[in-house]
Design goal:
binds zinc ion, 2 domains, 297 residues, three-stranded parallel sheet
């Protein structure tokens, strides 16, 4: 049996989506979604709003988060070519779901603590970069950088302050000489491995699904073996960007290994006529924890 009632992958202003949580919920409802997960990058700060918005829109909310991890395997050129991709993404994304926490966050504190340093707000990373700049003779007041940001702080805000302080003549110079990738004041926030993130999620009763596998340049059978070996529960075979043939290939191989699937539009905003939902998926092969919780609701 096929269903279009699940959309388990979406973003709001809590990470890089363009809509507020309540707007995302409304659009999900308009797309006839019944089971909705908000999966902002490395943060669960949208859950409270999502619970309220889900209630208002008669949606079932499944708390989720998309965790940025180190790549699990090295991309293969042949597979990238086959999928018309110039390069593989620099990180792998792991979707984590917590159906048990649909009503409250009590019990998830440990996981929140684990997630904190990875958060998109990137404050720990910014502090490190400011430390480095200070060591290099360019002291900067972090408050000034945060004022520029308003919300999620990033390198462009830091570059702006560097220009104001007279350390560099332009923002692009700041990137070219000091804070660009691999330069003296750049700091890379260490990312968890897929297996570490999986363990952290399992320890509080959640399950994980490997997000948009098409982006990684790995042949499907190798990907499924990787998931199996690292105890990744599911794979997002039915992702908005996947062609049907790829969805079916992953689904078939996952099923053979006893790995379930998830589906998600990866909705970031209604630009380019993108709408959430409309993700047909074979219901009985969806993650069993998800199905169990959806029956309870
Ligand atoms: Zn992603
Ligand atoms: Zn996403």
């Amino acid at each position: 049996m096929w269903t279009q009632k699940f959309d388990l992958h979406s973003h709001s202003v809590h990470s890089d989506g363009i809509h507020r949580v309540d707007e995302v919920a409304k659009m999900m409802k308009q797309s006839q979604v019944e089971f909705w997960s908000l999966t902002d990058h490395d943060t669960i700060s949208g859950w409270e709003e999502a619970r309220i918005a889900a209630k208002e829109n008669h949606l079932n909310f499944i708390p989720g988060v998309e965790i940025t991890c180190e790549p699990g395997l090295e991309a293969e050129v042949e597979e990238l070519n086959k999928m018309n991709r110039e390069r593989a993404s620099k990180s792998w994304h792991l979707l984590a779901y917590f159906p048990e926490f649909s009503d409250s966050n009590s019990g998830i504190e440990e996981f929140e603590k684990w997630l904190l340093p990875l958060q998109e707000s990137r404050l720990p990373r910014m502090k490190k970069m400011i430390e480095k700049l200070s060591e290099l003779g360019m002291p900067i007041d972090i408050e000034k950088v945060l004022d520029k940001a308003g919300g999620s702080v990033g390198r462009p805000h830091l570059a702006e302050v560097m220009v104001e302080m007279g350390y560099v003549e332009s923002k692009s110079k700041a990137f070219e000489v000091w804070i660009g990738d691999g330069l003296p004041a750049h700091y890379i926030q260490p990312k968890p491995s897929i297996s570490e993130a999986t363990k952290a999620v399992h320890s509080v009763g959640g399950f994980v699904s490997l997000a948009h596998p098409l982006y990684y340049g790995i042949p499907p059978s190798k990907l499924i073996d990787f998931c199996y070996a690292n105890k990744v529960d599911s794979i997002e075979a039915f992702h908005g960007s996947h062609p049907d043939s790829y969805r079916f290939e992953l689904w078939k191989l996952a099923n053979e290994k006893g790995i379930s699937i998830t589906c998600g539009s990866d909705f970031h905003g209604n630009t380019n006529d993108h709408t959430p939902g409309f993700m047909p998926a074979p219901k009985h092969h969806l993650n069993e924890q998800l199905l169990a919780s959806s029956q309870r609701i």
